[in-house]
TrEMBL record:
Protein name (record): Enoyl-[acyl-carrier-protein] reductase, mitochondrial
GO cellular component, one term: mitochondrion
Organism, scientific name: Artemisia annua (Sweet wormwood)
Keyword Disulfide bond: no
High-level lineage: Eukaryota, Viridiplantae, Streptophyta, Embryophyta, Tracheophyta
Keyword Hydrolase belongs to the record: no
Reaction equation(s) it catalyzes: a 2,3-saturated acyl-[ACP] + NADP(+) = a (2E)-enoyl-[ACP] + NADPH + H(+)
Entry EC no(s): 1.3.1.104
Location of the Enoyl reductase (ER) domain: 52-371
SMART domains (alphabetical): PKS_ER
Primary enzyme class: oxidoreductase
Length: 373
């Protein structure tokens, strides 16, 4: 790698065009000294100076090269998703978030571009993912300590490698960690069209567990139901279909579920509770509707339901890096065997703000947006 200069740089943006297409360019470069330090290429990044509405605070910025220290690895990013938690971090409402100014994104995959002098076991051209996930993946080049990169099989489709950690791993952990489920048991979930929901359906099916799935009402709900059924869903209902006195009367041969997953809140959470059997457990892992969960007194006293919460970030941060990698390798194996798949839309990096609008729900229900660099 050619020697490069060490730069001290101040970002003074020149704003061209409207907010969504704005490019910020550094206008003052102060050259301090020339050295033989190994430097990354400049990086184009989705950057936010302050918290706020993601579609207004995020800008495309050209970042200067950074030094690649002895234990660092510089990765040329290939793909990174826009997850609901990325949006919450930019809004400033996620409990753990990088200090501003920051580059967006949290998980992603790329190809090793160059390595620091003390790095063994990773070489240019290797396919690596951020594992466990860490902030700043929405940029063309990321420099991080070697311990934050996990090498994976080059035959892995990049859009899956980019997305496997947060959502599929959440689905796997929630199925395994709360109730001792046996083949033939059932799970009920809302938000079934989400990436987590699609993974729950397939991972449960692999263990012989039935799924009862609740989706939002929409035009084209038959199409959404058909997609989930093809993935292995036993039952799929829109919320309005469940506006009946006894939801369990709809179940037919599927047993009453012992475990429920809620990522929506409001009425959709009440529906999960209504399906649960005596002594069942509902695990809440998201709040897409921003509405609170209401639980009847009956549910506690006579049905003896338990309410729990799951947060992957807390799970991983309790010294689970090795386990996290083992499980993502397992999930990537299922993906390569064609046993796990989910809906995604790959969007070129230069159309980031269109992908962001889709992720913000401005264009109706959309598949998971994955930025392709
Ligand atoms: N706790 C954790 O550790 C953890 C880990 C991973 C994910 N999550 C959470 O899991 C949830 C799903 O994430 P994901 O990445 O899998 O989602 P996703 O693929 O981006 O899909 C978004 C989902 O949210 C639904 N949705 C969007 N706005 C909604 C609203 N206003 N009311 C009801 N539903 C709405 C969508 O339904 P439509 O199809 O109807 O549009 C879709 O099912 C999110 O809440 C996320 O924060 C939590």
């Amino acid at each position: 790698m050619a020697a490069a200069c060490v730069r001290l740089m101040t970002l003074k943006p020149i704003i061209h065009g409207t907010s969504s297409s704005t490019f910020l360019r550094p206008t003052s470069l102060k050259f301090r000294a020339y050295s033989t330090a190994l430097m990354s290429p400049p990086s184009t990044a989705i950057f936010y100076q302050d918290h706020g509405p993601p579609d207004t605070v995020t800008k495309v910025v050209e970042m200067p090269p950074v030094e690649i220290k002895a234990n660092d690895v510089c990765v040329k990013m290939l793909a990174a998703p826009i997850n609901p938690s990325d949006i919450n971090r930019i809004q400033g409402v996620y409990p753990v978030r990088p200090p501003v100014p920051a580059v967006g994104g949290y998980e992603g995959v790329g190809e090793v571009h160059s390595v620091g002098s003390a790095v063994n076991g990773l070489s240019p051209g290797d396919l690596v993912m951020a594992s466990p996930p860490s902030p700043g993946t929405w940029q063309t080049h990321v420099v991080k300590d070697k311990s934050l990169w996990h090498i994976i099989d080059k035959g892995t489709p990049v859009e899956y490698a980019a997305t496997v950690t947060i959502n599929p791993l959440t689905a796997l952990r929630m199925i395994e960690d709360y109730v001792d489920l046996k083949s033939g048991d059932a799970i009920v979930q809302n938000g079934a069209t989400s990436m987590v929901g699609q993974c729950v359906i397939q991972l449960a099916k692999l263990r012989g567990i039935h799924t009862i799935n609740i989706i939002r009402d929409r035009t084209g709900s038959d199409e959404a139901k058909e997609k989930l059924t093809k993935l292995g869903a036993d039952e799929v209902y829109t919320e309005s279909q469940l506006d009946v006195k006894n939801v369990k009367s709809l179940l037919g041969n599927v047993p009453e579920p012992a475990l429920g997953f809620n990522c929506v809140g409001g009425n959709a959470a009440s529906l999960v509770l209504k399906f649960l059997r005596q002594g069942g457990t509902m695990v809440t892992y998201g709040g897409m509707s921003k509405k609170p969960i209401t639980v009847s007194t009956t549910a506690f006293i006579f049905k003896e339901l338990s309410l729990k919460g799951f947060w992957l970030q807390k799970w991983i941060s309790s010294d689970k890096t090795d386990e996290c990698r083992k499980m993502t390798d397992y999930l990537l194996g299922l993906i390569r065997e064609g046993k796990l798949k989910y809906d995604m839309e790959l969007t070129p990096f230069n159309e980031f703000h269109t992908a962001l609008d889709k992720s913000l729900g401005k264009l109706g229900s959309q598949p998971k947006q994955v930025i392709k660099f």
